[in-house]
Amino acid sequence: DTFEFTEEFKGDLAHDGDIICKLNTGNGRVSVKGWNEPGYRLRIIQRIRAKDRETALTRLHHIDIPDHEPLRELELAVPSFSDMTISLELDLPRTLIYQLDMRTHNGSITLADLYARTAQVNTSNGSVEIQGLQSERIECQTQNGSCRVDHTKTEVFIGRTGNGSYKLYSLQGERVECTTANGSIRVEPIVR
Questions:
Q1: How sure is the predictor about 190, in pLDDT bands with cuts at 50, 70 and 90?
Q2: How far apart are CA 51 and CA 45, in angstroms?
Q3: Please, which residues have CB within 8 angstroms of residue 93's CB and are 6 or more apart in sequence?
Q4: CA 60/CA 19 separation, integer angstroms
Q5: How do residues 157-175 score in pLDDT, each as one tens digit?
Q6: 3-state SS record for the chain
Q7: To the nearest whole number, what is the mean pLDDT of the chain?
Q8: Are 40 and 15 in contact (CB under 8 A)?
C-alpha cells in the first residue's frame, strides 16, 4: 500500500533584493507558483510504500525549515529514497524577484506566474512546464521529458533535452536556443 503525508510550512520573505530559491528532490515533483499572499507556503508531500501506516510513519523523512526572521534564501535538498517520493509545492509572493533553481531526478517541474532574475530547471526523467514567468534568463534541461513554455517573457531561453520535445507558445525572447537529440521543437510565435 501507499501512504501519503503532507507537511506545511509558512513564513515571511525579505522584501528587498532578490530571493534565492533552490529546491531539489530525488524522486518527486517540484511546483513553484506565484500567489497574492505576502509570505511563502511550502507543502511537502511524502508518498511511502509500506505494509501499513505505522511502518510508513517510521520512514518519514524529517525536513526542517527555519521559521525565524524573513528569509532571503529558501533552500531544500531532499535525497532519493527507495519506495518513497517526496514532492515539493511552493507558493511565493508575485511581487518579489527570485533567483530560481529547481531540480529533480524523477519527477516533473512546474513554474508559474513569477518574476525571476534567473530560472534554472533540471530534471532527468520528467516534464517541465513554465507558464507566465518573466525572467532575464531561463535554462531548461531534461534528459527524458518534454518542455512546454507558455506566455513567458525572457531575454534568453536555453533549452536542452535528450529524449523529448519542446513546445514554445507565446514566448517573448531576444535569444531562444533549443536542442533535442530525439524529439521535436515547436514554436508558435516568438514575439520580439
A1: low
A2: 19
A3: 13, 34, 35, 36, 37, 38, 39, 40
A4: 29
A5: 999 999 999 999 988 888 9
A6: CEEEEEEEEEECECCCCCEEEEEEEEECCEEEEEECCCCEEEEEEEEEECCCHHHHHHCCCCCCCCCCCCECEEEEEECCECCEEEEEEEEEECCCEEEEEEEEEECCEEEEEEEEEEEEEEEEECCEEEEEEEEEEEEEEEEECCEEEEEEEEEEEEEEEEECCEEEEEEEEEEEEEEEEECCEEEEEEEC
A7: 93
A8: no
Taking residue 84's Cβ as centre, other Cβ atoms within 10 Å add up to 20
Tell me which residue has cell 519542446: 166
Q: What is the pTM of this model?
A: 0.94
Locus of grid cell 533549452: 159
Cell of residue 123, nine digits: 530534471
C-alpha cell at 4: 501519503
What are the grid coordinates assigned to 133, written together?
514567468
